[in-house]
From TrEMBL:
UniProt lineage: Bacteria, Pseudomonadati, Pseudomonadota, Alphaproteobacteria, Acetobacterales
Cleavable signal peptide: 1-42
Keywords: Signal
Name this polypeptide is given: Gluconate 2-dehydrogenase subunit 3 family protein
InterPro entries linked to this entry: TAT_signal
Length: 183
């Protein structure tokens, strides 16, 4: 009996067609397409709706914009809200209502949901309209810790971490900040 090769074969044209679309897919991810309610990270939520969490992640990027940070860092910054909201009905309500408020304001100004507003400048206008709300103040305040306390973010922003255990900043180059403009 002859043995049959059961490995998957890919013809040259199929391979080239796939290779041609790969950069477009990578560009879509780099452009922020990972912040979507149907993304894999949103499927495991327990308490907060996927759309709400998506709005929170997009708002996090708009409140603290860093082009050198991938969406995953912003998603990681807002994901703890899901666990907290599972235990705190008031927080869950604040988050759900706050995201709905952002969507309503975006629809009023630009005719689409907050995450579908294409321009960062326009999304910032929406955020400015709600910046005095308890929702915005909670999100902005929490993000300072949840975003910037991720050790993977530190080198991307030029922070080398704690210097105490290395003898302090004086012996470790306290004046080596090269990313600040000269005064």
């Amino acid at each position: 009996m002859r043995e049959v090769d059961k490995r998957t074969t890919v013809r040259r044209r199929v391979f080239l067609r796939g290779a041609a679309t790969a950069p477009a897919a990578a560009a879509a991810v780099a452009a922020g397409m990972t912040i979507a309610p149907n993304a894999a990270w949103a499927a495991d939520l327990k308490a907060v709706k996927p759309n709400t969490m998506t709005v929170l992640a997009r708002a996090a990027r708009d409140i603290y914009p860093h082009d050198q940070l991938a969406d995953r860092y912003y998603i990681a910054a807002v994901l703890p809200y899901d666990d907290q909201a599972a235990k705190d009905a008031a927080l869950k309500s604040l988050l759900e209502e706050g995201a709905a408020q952002l969507d309503a304001e975006a629809k009023k100004r630009f005719g689409r949901d907050y995450i579908r507003v294409g321009s960062e400048e326009q999304r910032v206008q929406v955020l400015q309209a709600v910046e005095k709300s308890a929702f915005f103040q909670k999100l902005r305040g929490d993000l300072v810790v949840s975003l910037y306390n991720q050790k993977e973010v530190w080198p991307k922003l030029g922070y080398e971490g704690s210097s105490y255990e290395h003898g302090g900043y004086i012996r470790r180059g306290f004046d080596d900040i090269d990313w600040l403009p000269e005064a």
